[in-house]
Design brief:
46% helix, ATPase_BadF (chains A, B), ATPase_NBD (chains A, B), 2 domains, five-stranded mixed β-sheet, alpha/beta, globular, four-stranded mixed β-sheet, Nucleotidyltransferase, domain 5, transferase (chains A, B), homodimer, 19% strand
Chain lengths: 293, 293
């Protein structure tokens, strides 16, 4: 029996979907983080745990894993030799490690031309034009990931401090933010010193919430973020070309804030990244086999 | 014998100047870092090491430390209860722990009205108006320190990646920056992941260097930084009021980039922060004594 497997893995967890040659899902599993940049062995363990759950869910024995053809979409797959190293560590018949952005593209727009923007804690832009896939951004919180939740949350804390210092005028959002830190800037300093992208990202939803009520600072922060998003969109693909999907936790929140030319080509995603991994597995393994068989 | 002591301490080192009641320096010493935010006991040890060197330099015995009246200017002095905790740990007759910004103010403009901007790896604004001292900014690299070397260096890496991705147009500076990372954005990602303010700050001088040759990106980054500096200046003190000193490694580089209204009140600093600590010791201890004697 020919088995296809899709894996969607990252820092927060790993999901597996087992499918038949047509891409119909027959079993699912999930496990812990699969971060191949920081812990490739831990990633391997969690990928196999999710896979075995999916096999069990499909009523199959764990030994069936040797007949699996897998597509794994993993954050950090495009850094150094992470992808080929992991491929060699896996027990599957065939394995292709792709970036999380690539499987998100397949999930959201299939094999059509268009652009997918992942707007979560981080951000990344992936586009397909005449079959050619290109990824931009997504270089991490400290020097990239514009428009992401982490950057938006960080920007909010910076502006709250500027309002506290009297450099910029205050707003209900700035006041709310300072109140969350007991109106003590030193508490923000202490928080920021050890905060990572996830920690800063927790403040992003507050910006959208206050923007709904017309808060001046919230609107300014979102306007700046939208400008960076639209600059990247203009760079990867002319606005009139192909569909556009904004996915990730902040995707739907940003959608209504885009300028009309970009809003006009917005589409709901066809499916999620895990579904995209399965789709790509069908394309890479089942179709290729059919072509040759 | 009445002894006054000035200490200028921070993450990179600690300097001591021993002075007589008139503020004339009679001995100097230096030692390792005095970071009271992360290691108050280590700071105490290095402060005492620098003090004993200064006593030795003045031909005095270490036991003389119990007759010292000291002003210590230390980064992080305004956070939590760091200052009173350290004051209790020191063997001096009297000790006052102030922020590094306060002694820089006394060093640069004495007891006149005016504003001092420290523009080094971090940034902070300190101003005196009608005797009242106010500090703004300086809340750290991640959410503040606008215009600092760390922020400017970080901004440069972000723009180099945006040029690499084709989102912004490139420039000789953007190309030079990418070349320093072997034209491999993943090298910037790896660098940024573990980089702290000092690491990012190493790229700041390059921005000023390229600005001299009219590099578009360099000029843009400096223009943005100058805008944040001038906004803070306008908030702390109207341009026509008091002298302005830009100190720290980037101070002189920014000076010529200010708009005319701010350039018009620029003055060279009278002295450095260590000298400011001694001046403040004279004001707090010697003068006060004279008033009462």
């Amino acid at each position: 029996m020919e088995l296809l497997l899709g894996i969607d893995g990252g820092g927060t967890g790993c999901r597996a979907a087992l499918a038949d040659k047509a891409g119909r899902v027959i079993g699912r599993g999930k496990s812990g983080s699969a971060n191949i940049m920081t812990d490739i062995e831990g990633a391997r363990v969690n990928i196999l745990a999710a896979t075995r759950q999916a096999l069990q869910d499909a009523g199959l024995d764990a030994t069936a894993e040797t007949s699996i053809s897998a597509v794994l979409g993993l954050a950090g797959a495009n850094v150094g030799d992470n992808a080929p190293r992991l491929e060699k560590l896996l027990p599957f018949a065939r394995a292709r490690v792709k970036s999380d952005a690539i499987i998100a593209l397949y999930g959201a727009i299939g094999d059509a031309d268009g652009t997918v923007v992942i707007l979560g804690t981080g951000s990344v832009f992936v586009t397909r034009k005449a079959g050619h896939i290109r990824t931009i951004g997504g270089w991490g919180f400290k020097v990239s990931d514009l428009g992401s939740g982490a950057r938006l949350g960080r920007d909010l804390l910076e502006e709250a401090l500027l309002a506290h210092d009297g450099v910029h005028s205050s707003s209900p959002l700035a006041e709310k933010t300072m109140a969350m830190f007991d109106n003590d800037p030193h508490r923000i300093v202490t928080f920021a010193r050890s905060a990572g992208p996830n920690d800063f990202g927790t403040y992003a939803p507050l910006v959208f919430e206050y923007a709904e009520n017309g808060d001046r600072l919230a609107l300014l922060l979102i306007e700046r973020a939208v400008k960076t998003i639209e600059e990247a969109l203009d760079a990867v693909m002319p606005p009139e070309k192909g569909r556009l999907c904004l996915i990730g936790g902040l995707g739907p929140l940003y959608a209504s804030r885009l300028s009309p030319k970009h809003r006009a080509r917005l589409h709901a995603p066809l499916g999620d990244a895990l579904g995209g991994a399965v789709k790509l597995a069908v394309e890479l393994f089942a179709h290729a086999e059919a072509d040759h068989g």
